[in-house]
Structures are given as structure tokens and as C-alpha cells.
Write a structure and sequence with these properties.
- There is one protein chain.
- The chain is globular, with a radius of gyration of 19 Å.
- It is 45% helix and 10% strand.
- The chain has a 3-stranded antiparallel sheet.
- A hairpin with a 4-residue loop joins strand 1 and strand 2.
- It has one domain: Iron/manganese superoxide dismutase, C-terminal domain (minor pseudopilin epsh fold, 3-Layer(bab) Sandwich), CATH 3.55.40.20.
- It has 228 residues and is mainly alpha-helical.
- Helix 1 packs antiparallel against helix 2.
- The structure holds fe (ii) ion.
- The site of fe (ii) ion has 7 residues, from helix 1.
- Fe (ii) ion binds next to helix 1.
Length: 228
């Protein structure tokens, strides 16, 4: 697969993050997600995470320049919270599609069946995980490049309860701002309806790129050449 079509590596400077546009109109996901919910969620909530991430990065530039780290604990927390919020929302918009798709593509299906046993078992665990996230958070399917398999995790807020190194390939936002206008407190109804929107070709692309990551737990014997 040629990754050039998907992603051109470049380093984003401190404070240089921006809100990615929605890949469809605000009303495209109705009736599962209303236009009103999508507009507020993307334009206000996601924007606030981008702003918060930029601010944290710039405050840390300032701290380094001044050699003043009195607020380091605060800005490191902001960096994790807003940075993770920006990452997960950016993925969330793209793993949904107005058209809906019939099911996982070839490699995604192979990995799901290989690790979870069946699509039904995977879906059941994902739904239960999403419904039972305490307070605000996410259900997240990751590719773990150290162990070379998928896993279902949950995140409280955006950043808590991860496995380090896991690469998110499919995410479901279960903060109340994602569903409350449409479903009130019926999170389970939102989670189950959300499956109609999954953009499986996008998940497949994310999986194939994630599977290229080489992040073994121990690298000392792998003969990796370094220049230092
Ligand atoms: Fe959200």
C-alpha cells in the first residue's frame, strides 16, 4: 500500500494544530446523529480541544524559554487531555460515514476473528465497553504494535486508561455532548445505532497503516542501525 496517498509526514510546530473539517455536511449522519449535535460537537467542542492543545504547547515553550516550570503539572495535564481529545475526535469524524458500510474489510475481519473469535463477540464487547464507560469517555479499538493484535480499550475523559503504544483505529465518543441532545440519558441506544455509521474502509486503512508500525518491547537484538 502506498501511504503517500494518505499521509505526508511533517512536524507540527508548537501551537500549530488546526481543526480538521468535517468530511460530510452537518446533517449527513441523521437520524442517528442530528445536525445540531454534530455542529456543536465539531465546531465548539473539538475546536476547544485544538485550542487547549495549542495553548498548552505554547505555554510549555514559554516555560522552557524562561526556565520556569512552576506550572508544569498543570500544563502537562492540559497537553494530555486536549491532545488526546484532538486526536480521538479527528479519528471519530472519519470512522463514520453517511452511507454506512456492510461490515469489516478483509484485514480488519481477519484480525477481529483471529483475536476476538468472531465479529459478534467483538461487537458485543465493544458495545458493552462503550455503554459502561464511567462518566465521559470513549470506546477505542487499538492496534497494539508490540503484541501485534487488536484490543478494545475504554478511555475516561480522553487520556486515561490507555495501553501505551496502542494506535487507535476505531473510536466511539460517549461523552454526553456526543449524544445527549438526541438520546438524553439513553447512551445504549446511541451506541447501538452508531454501528449503522461505521466507515469500515476507513478502519481498514487505519489498521493497515498501524500494522506497519514496528514497536517491539525489546529492541536490543534486532540490529537496528542508529547514527549517534
Ligand atoms: Fe466529543
Amino acid at each position: 500500500m502506498n501511504t503517500q496517498n494518505y499521509w505526508a509526514p511533517r512536524s507540527i510546530p508548537p501551537g500549530g494544530h488546526s481543526l480538521p473539517p468535517l468530511p460530510y455536511p452537518y446533517n449527513a449522519l441523521e437520524p442517528v446523529i442530528s445536525s445540531n449535535t454534530l455542529r456543536i460537537h465539531h465546531d465548539r467542542h473539538h475546536q476547544s480541544y485544538v485550542d487547549g492543545l495549542n495553548k498548552a504547547e505554547l505555554k510549555l515553550v514559554e516555560a522552557r524559554q524562561k526556565g520556569d516550570f512552576a506550572l508544569i503539572k498543570h500544563w502537562e495535564r492540559e497537553l494530555a487531555f486536549h491532545g488526546s481529545g484532538h486526536i480521538l475526535h479527528s479519528i471519530y469524524w472519519t470512522v463514520m460515514t453517511p452511507q454506512g458500510t456492510s461490515g469489516p474489510c478483509t484485514e480488519t475481519r481477519r484480525q477481529i476473528n483471529g483475536y476476538f473469535g468472531s465479529m459478534d463477540a467483538f461487537q458485543q464487547q465493544f458495545i458493552e465497553a462503550a455503554i459502561n464507560v464511567e462518566a465521559s469517555g470513549w470506546a477505542v479499538v487499538i492496534w497494539n504494535p508490540s503484541w501485534n493484535h487488536l484490543e478494545i480499550l475504554t478511555a475516561e475523559k480522553h487520556q486515561n486508561l490507555t495501553q501505551w503504544g496502542g494506535i487507535p483505529i476505531m473510536v466511539l465518543d460517549v461523552w454526553e455532548h456526543a449524544y445527549y441532545l438526541d438520546y438524553q440519558n439513553r447512551r445504549a441506544d446511541y451506541v447501538k445505532a452508531w454501528w449503522q455509521l461505521v466507515n469500515w474502509p476507513e478502519v481498514e486503512k487505519r489498521l493497515l497503516l498501524a500494522m506497519r508500525a514496528q514497536v517491539p518491547l525489546v529492541i536490543s537484538n534486532l540490529g537496528v542501525a542508529v547514527d549517534c
